[in-house]
């Protein structure tokens, strides 16, 4: 008797899918599509993820027309992004690829219903979802991690998002358990011209998930050497009380980073010792306290002054955002700022009725008394 070995993988089931050609005529395409194994389905259901086995499942979940979904899931289809340049601090331009409204909505759906269901590395602090139980300012958390160590090393990954390829995004969806065809569709939704686009809502969290192996390798080495390691997007920070050890770690980290497909930006490497100011993600740290960026506080004070003396409160939401951020770092900041605003409200500005009315209508701190018109 001849024994027939069973295949290691289930043969794909042949189903019929439809698409559209350039003349908007319906095409019938025969494709081999996988069925998600039961154990993977159980895993997905436990995380409340959508079960997507084919193009029709994506259409049904998104509740959009087949034609629109076909366009959104087509690799590098024209018109999906608006691209422009944005000046960086060093004067160079950064490429921004902003998805059009329909694509952005679908990316947000992928982010909420699939990506956010997977936890990031505990060493990653940027763009982490609150469902992981991490609340409060992530910048402050990073600062506090390094606050009590004497020496600080900061490294930057060059061209972070463009360094993450479509193939890595595809593999991330495959790892979750989605079939090849669906993983391709999802990768096409989340990438542009073969890389993660800077401007898509999915890019930051996808980068965190894809960098989990990088984080594990670096943390595994650092933990053995009693070095504190954190990563905030492309900013990697290391701290220790051993100066020589922190200097030596650079070569090992560089090797790991490059082995994972990234390159360090040599120009942004920074080492801070006892005599240098230690700054983490814009926050100045030492053993006694943490301080938010001085320039930011000056800017907020200047914006508040301009608003009150001119009656132009067009930047009110930006001012409130800055105050909220700085307050999360320096608890006493709001009290100092209130005293400043109170002094302005009691100055000769109160002689101007228009300024008084504008101040009372757009009060930055609602618990402060109204400005009273002086005769």
What is the gyration radius calculated from CA atoms?
26 Å
Report the structural category: alpha+beta
Share of residues in strands: 15-25%
State the helicity in percent bands: 40-55%
Q: Please tally the β strands and state the result.
A: 11
Q: Give the SSE order as H and E letters.
A: EEHHHEEHHEHHHHEEHEEEEHHHH
Q: Characterize the overall form.
A: globular
Mean pLDDT: 86
Largest sheet: 4 strands, antiparallel
Report how far apart the termini are: 111 Å
Uncertain runs: 1-19, 21-31
**Strand arrangement, major sheet:** 6-7-5-8
Report what the structure shows.
- The chain has 14 helices and 11 strands.
- It is α+β, with helices and mostly antiparallel strands.
- The strands form 4 sheets. It has a 4-stranded antiparallel β-sheet, sandwiched between helices.
- β1 and β2 form a beta hairpin.
- 28% of the residues are buried.
- The N terminus is likely disordered.
Key terms for this structure?
14 helices; 11 strands
Describe the structure concisely for a colleague.
With 375 residues, this protein is an alpha+beta fold.
Topology:
Layout: E1 13-20, E2 26-33, H1 38-46, H2 55-62, H3 66-72, E3 81-87, E4 93-99, H4 101-113, H5 138-146, E5 151-156, H6 166-176, H7 180-190, H8 203-210, H9 212-224, E6 228-232, E7 235-240, H10 243-259, E8 270-272, E9 279-280, E10 283-285, E11 290-291, H11 294-310, H12 316-329, H13 333-345, H14 353-361
Antiparallel strand pairs: 1-2, 3-4, 5-7, 5-8, 6-7, 9-10, 10-11
């Amino acid at each position: 008797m001849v024994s027939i070995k069973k295949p290691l993988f289930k043969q794909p089931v042949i189903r019929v899918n439809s698409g559209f050609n350039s003349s908007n005529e319906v095409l019938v395409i025969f494709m081999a599509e996988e069925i998600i194994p039961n154990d993977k389905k159980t895993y997905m259901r436990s995380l409340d993820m959508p079960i997507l086995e084919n193009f029709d499942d994506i259409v049904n979940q998104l509740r959009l027309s087949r034609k629109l979904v076909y366009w959104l899931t087509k690799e590098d289809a024209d018109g999906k992004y608006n691209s422009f340049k944005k000046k960086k601090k060093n004067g160079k331009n950064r490429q921004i690829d902003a998805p059009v409204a329909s694509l952005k909505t679908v990316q947000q759906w992928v982010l909420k219903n699939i990506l956010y269901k997977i936890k990031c590395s505990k060493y990653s602090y940027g763009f982490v979802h609150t469902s992981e139980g991490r609340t409060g300012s992530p910048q402050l958390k990073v600062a506090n991690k390094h606050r009590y160590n004497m020496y600080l090393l900061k490294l930057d990954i060059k061209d972070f998002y463009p360094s993450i390829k479509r193939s890595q995004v595809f593999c991330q969806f495959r790892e979750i358990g989605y079939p090849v065809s669906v993983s391709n569709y999802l990768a096409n939704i989340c990438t542009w011209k073969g890389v993660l686009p800077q401007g898509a809502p999915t890019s930051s969290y996808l980068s965190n998930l894809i960098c989990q192996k990088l984080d594990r390798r670096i943390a595994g080495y650092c933990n053995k050497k009693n070095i504190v390691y954190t990563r905030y997007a492309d900013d990697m920070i290391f701290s220790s009380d051993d100066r020589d050890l922190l200097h030596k770690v650079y070569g090992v980290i560089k090797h790991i980073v490059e082995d994972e497909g990234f390159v360090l930006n040599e120009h942004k490497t920074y080492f801070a010792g006892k005599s240098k100011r230690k700054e983490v993600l814009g926050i100045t740290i030492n053993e006694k306290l943490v301080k938010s960026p001085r320039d930011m506080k000056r800017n907020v004070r200047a914006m508040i002054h301009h608003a009150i003396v001119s009656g132009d409160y067009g930047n009110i939401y930006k001012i409130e955002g800055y105050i909220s951020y700085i307050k999360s770092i320096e608890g006493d900041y709001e009290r100092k700022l209130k005293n400043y605003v109170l002094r302005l409200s009691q100055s000769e500005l109160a002689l101007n009725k228009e300024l008084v009315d504008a101040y009372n209508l757009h009060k930055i701190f609602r618990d402060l008394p109204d400005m009273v018109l002086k005769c």
